[in-house]
Amino acid sequence: MIKTTIINLIFFILGTKIALANSQNLEQQAQQLYDKDRLTEAIPLLQQAINDYKTQDNLIKEANATRNLALIYQKVGNWQKANETIANAIAILSQISDSTNRNQLFAQALDVKGQIQLSLGQSETALETWKEAANLYQKFGDLTRYTKSQIYQATALQSLGLYAQAIKKLNQIQQQLEK
Fold this sequence. Notes:
The chain has about 180 residues and is mostly helical. About 85% of the residues lie in helices and about 0% in strands. It contains 8 helices and no strands. Helix 1 (about 1-35) runs antiparallel to helix 2. It is globular and about 70 Å long. It starts with a helix and ends with a helix. Mean pLDDT is about 90; it is low at about 15-20.
C-alpha cells in the first residue's frame, strides 16, 4: 500500500516536471519564431503553452505566456485579440497574491497594454498606463524598464501633439541616464 502510494507520487511529480518542461519548450520555440518575425506560427505554440500552464495551475507562467501572446496579436494587427488577451493576462495576475514576480509581470503587462492602447489611438489612456508601469518599475528598482516606460510616455505625448512635453520627458530621461 505505502509502496504503491510512493510510486504514484513519484510518477505524479515526474509527470508534472515533464509537462512543465514541455510547456517551457513551446514558449522557447514561440520566442524563436517571434525573433524570426514568423509571428503567426508562434501563436498556436503560445496558446498550447498557456493551456498547459492552466492545467498545471501555474498562474505566473500562464500570465507571462498570455502577455507574450497579446504582444504578438498586437504586432500582427489583431487589435481585438490583443486587447482581450492582455486583459486576460492582467486578470490572471490579479489572482496571484502580491509578490515581486507578480508585480514585475504586472508592470510588463501594463507596458504591452499601453502599446495596444497607443496602436488603437488611445494615447491618453496609454500615457496613464505607462505612468503606472513606470511607477512599479521604479518601486522595484528596474531602471532599464523604468526608462523604457518613460520613453513610451514620450511617444504617447508626441502622438497627443504635446511635443514640448515629449521633449522635456526625453531630456529628463537623458539626465537620468547620465547620472
